Amino acid sequence: MAQVFFRGFRLCNTSILSKTAAACCKCERRTFKLLSNLQPSFVSLSNKKLYSSQSEKKPAETLGTTRALDPLDIFGENKDERRKEKEKAIKNLKIGFFFIGASLMMVLGSGLYVLMDDNYYKKDEDEKDMYPVRLFNRGRLAIREFFESMRAPSYEKLLPDPLPYPYIQPPYTLIIEMTDLLVHPEWTYTTGWRFKKRPNVDHFLEQVSQNYEIVVFTASNGFNVYPILDSLDKNNVIMYRLVKNATDYIDGHHVKNIDRINRDLSKVIMVDWNADSVKLQRENALVIPRWNGEDGDQQLIQLAEFLNVVSASEVNDVREVLSYYKQFDHPLEVFKENQRKLLEMQEEQKQISGTLPINKARGSWKDKYLYGK
């Protein structure tokens, strides 16, 4: 009985497949879709799914009826909407290219007009050259001057002229970096970015301002620097503030060029932690270690003492002193050691011969205290 039932079921299955064979079409792209016109009894009985191709241009005909094409593609998106979006994107792209081309034509036309009529770009050109060659040279000169202006400071004189009499002009000028010398930037999850004030910075500014014209020169932007200095300099002892647009951009670094400072370089001292920032006038620079936010730092006290000694000794050219300390990685430590040796030497001289003559003592004091000689 079971064999009879099985043979009957197989014959029924074969007859149904032969009737639905017309619903299948050739597979060109090997993409298939479930036939929607199969009888539910057959699908539930055989638990199988038959697929047909969507690559045919004409819809498949099943049992004398025509099945309409499904407007959805294999990704489940509407083909008409995708086509409209594509056409809209192409239209917007064409409009964008049109405006870009029109802008370029206006810029080139204006540039050619300037190069043809401006006498500034006609200097030092050979009249024997062809006119297109001369026009090309003018354009190259204009482009070169444009990039040079981007690398150069915004103005020629970084500081105004010294104060005339009867106003008091300090004899020396101190140019000091702000970031990691006076303040240190820190970031935390709770506060975000903030600047930490260095220990003894108020004492340093007060002591140095008596004999120095203090200038803060940093490569940071002005909208960051000015609020910090307003909060830091409560007594207004910082006379000038120079920011990023006052630097020269050389080899990927913002360099401080004090040739534009409008001061006598024999009286100018630059204090910085980055040697690349002062490489144009290294003989005027005192490079000290960078402050990373330590609470027990005492370096500003040593720096104030060093600067006060230079001004008190009335050094004619500070570059002689700075050239000596340029060879050390920690110049203030060397200065402190020279100071200790000097005090020991003075004690020995007092015990041996009493008080030295004024001129001899002053010359020996300056050499030992500054140069370590």
Q: Would you give an account of this structure?
A:
The structure is a single chain. With about 375 residues, the protein is of the alpha/beta class. Among the domains are: about 105-150, no CATH class; about 170-355, Rossmann fold, CATH 3.40.50. The chain contains ten helices and 13 strands. It has helices spanning about 1-20, 40-45, 80-115, 130-150, 200-210, 220-230, 300-310, 320-325, 330-355, 360-370; strands at about 30-35, 50-55, 60, 65, 170-175, 185-190, 190-195, 210-215, 240, 250, 255, 270, 285. A five-stranded parallel beta sheet has the order 9-8-5-12-13, with helices on one face. It has a two-stranded antiparallel ribbon with strand order 1-2. The radius of gyration is 42 Å and the shape is elongated. The termini are far apart. Residues about 1-5, about 10-70 and about 360 have low confidence and may be disordered.
Radius of gyration: 42 Å
Query: Strand order, biggest sheet?
Result: 9-8-5-12-13
Give me the CATH superfamily of the domain at 172-353: HAD superfamily/HAD-like
Q: Assess the beta-strand content as a share of residues.
A: 5-15%
And the CATH topology of the domain at 172-353? Rossmann fold
Q: What is the tally of beta strands?
A: 13
* Structural class computed from helices and strand pairing: alpha/beta
Quote the average pLDDT.
Answer: 76
Coarse morphology: elongated
Which H/E pattern describes the elements? HEHEEEHHEEEHEHEEEEEHHHH
Largest sheet: 5 strands, parallel
The residue ranges in which pLDDT falls below 50 over 5 or more consecutive positions are: 1-6, 11-69, 358-362
What is the helical fraction, as a range of percent? 40-55%
Q: Distance N terminus to C terminus? A: 123 Å
CATH architecture of the domain at 172-353: 3-Layer(aba) Sandwich
Which CATH C-level class of the domain at 172-353 is it?
A: Alpha Beta
Transmembrane segments: 93-116
InterPro entries: FCP1_dom, HAD-like_sf, HAD_sf, TIM50
Subcellular location: Mitochondrion inner membrane
Main location: mitochondrion
